[in-house]
Design brief:
alpha/beta; Serine Threonine Protein Phosphatase 5, Tetratricopeptide repeat; 442 residues
């Protein structure tokens, strides 16, 4: 097993929100295989592109018109269904009917098979419905057989295989996510950097999608930090996932299957206002406390605030992660988050893969994932700079803010870069003028 030596940081709570939810953006997944040039724009997964709701409504109108003039097109029905789902202008029954029609038009349409598989995954909630998950798994495998270079079905396949306890197969699907070029280097490197931010044998709670799959794929494909458990909070409500997720890593589970099932039964009998994911998360934190905090526990900086708010302990930034400390959470909402700037800066300088952060061949458009990711790096660099300024370490201030501005300017976030340049002048009035001509490409 490969492991990169690691080191530490912390930041202001308010500033962390700048970097939060940033990964809920886009990968660069290969185009839907049945698309042709005369069709309206593809409706990509929210994992790949997140558009305004009214834009999805406009695209639904375009796909509805195309479906009318091309009644033989199965993929048109699928695209219309996806647009309506994201626009939230149709009932689940209407969307299901469109998918069924697509399959009736062409039972070999990979997009229709993938959507049927997704339906089986959603409906197969609970261990008594695992047979439906098996149906969904077979439908995704058929879609891959028809369109072997299409990466999209592998994401759902991984989910279903974990729930079904097919861990060797799940690992192969994670490897395929990288092999099929599902993600650009910027996102793969971010997943790597997230992994190496964790201490050995850590548990990392993630939001799902782009703060989850890249790290899992890097673990599966390259064996890096396989002792770190990547736990998707959006799936943790499912008992099958809650018991199976630990079996994929090199290490023990924080709780036994029986303990998790007992906890689920109690929650199911009296759910209260908390989701099971939150209940289990808190139980894991409690178990870690009983064990003397031997297991480091983290949240990805992209995790929804609803989970951070129920965590009773103070958090500290370490690289791209928020580490749970043994100290109680401060009462003040605007209290600063502890910062281990030495570890974070060492991670940034010696462990992180950053070449792709200025890759000229990447997509740096306004909605590109690469562009949004740079804000996460800039956030931690700015936080390190804040701590350095308090200590009077102007050399570190100049390095970290210079790096943050360089990354933001390159990726097109000039307004944020200008804000940092202004802050730099406030904390370091004698600093030489920042020459941004060499970094401001767009």
């Amino acid at each position: 097993m490969l492991r990169v030596e690691k080191v530490v940081v912390s930041v202001y709570r308010g500033f962390l929100l700048w970097g939060a939810s940033i990964l809920f953006a886009s990968a660069s997944i290969a185009q839907t295989p049945s698309m042709t040039k005369d069709m309206p724009p593809e409706i990509k997964s929210w994992r790949d592109e997140f558009l305004p709701q009214d834009r999805y409504a406009e695209l639904a109108d375009e796909w509805r018109a195309y479906s009318t003039t091309h009644p033989e097109s199965a993929v048109a029905r699928v695209q219309l269904a996806r647009a309506l789902r994201y626009a939230r202008t149709a009932s689940p029954e209407e969307i299901d009917a469109l998918i069924d029609t697509a399959y009736e038009i062409d039972p070999r349409c990979p997009e229709a098979l993938a959507e049927l598989s997704y339906r089986a995954y959603v409906m197969g909630w609970g261990e008594e419905f695992l047979d439906q998950l098996e149906v969904g798994r077979r439908q995704s495998l058929e879609a891959i057989e028809i369109a072997p270079n299409w990466a999209y079905p592998y994401f759902g396949l991984w989910n279903m295989c974990v729930l079904l306890g097919r861990h060797d197969e799940a690992k192969r699907h994670l490897e395929a996510i990288l092999d099929k070029g599902a993600y650009p280097a910027t996102i793969v490197d971010f997943g790597y950097n997230l992994l190496v931010s964790a201490r050995p044998n850590a548990i990392v709670f993630t939001n799902g999608d782009n703060d989850t799959y890249p790290s899992l794929a890097v673990q599966a494909k390259h064996g890096i930090c396989r002792d770190v458990a990547i736990v998707n909070l959006s799936l943790l409500n499912r008992l099958e996932y809650a018991t199976q997720v630990w079996k994929a890593r090199d290490g023990s589970a924080p709780m036994s299957d029986d303990e998790i099932r007992t906890l689920y039964s109690r929650w199911e009998a009296d759910p209260g206002e908390m989701s099971f994911a939150k209940v289990l998360m808190l139980a894991i934190l409690d178990q870690s406390k009983k064990d003397g905090w031997e297991t480091p526990i983290y949240f990805a900086s992209t995790v929804s605030p609803q989970y951070l708010e129920v965590c009773p302990y103070a958090l500290r930034i370490e690289g791209l992660l928020l580490r749970v400390t043994r100290d109680p959470k401060p009462d003040e909402d605007d209290a600063e988050t502890a910062i281990d700037s030495d570890r974070t800066l060492t991670l940034y300088r010696t462990a992180f893969r950053m070449d792709s952060a200025t890759d000229l061949s990447s997509n740096w458009g306004p909605r590109s994932p690469a562009r949004r990711l740079m804000q996460n790096y800039a956030a931690i660099l700015r936080s390190v700079a804040s701590e350095a300024a308090r200590k009077g370490n102007l050399e570190e201030v100049r390095y970290t803010l210079g790096e943050a501005i360089r990354l933001l300017d390159f990726s097109g976030e000039s307004e944020m870069a200008s804000s940092l340049a202004k802050y730099w002048k406030e904390v370091d009035p004698d600093a030489p003028p920042v020459d941004r001509r060499s970094t401001k490409f767009r």
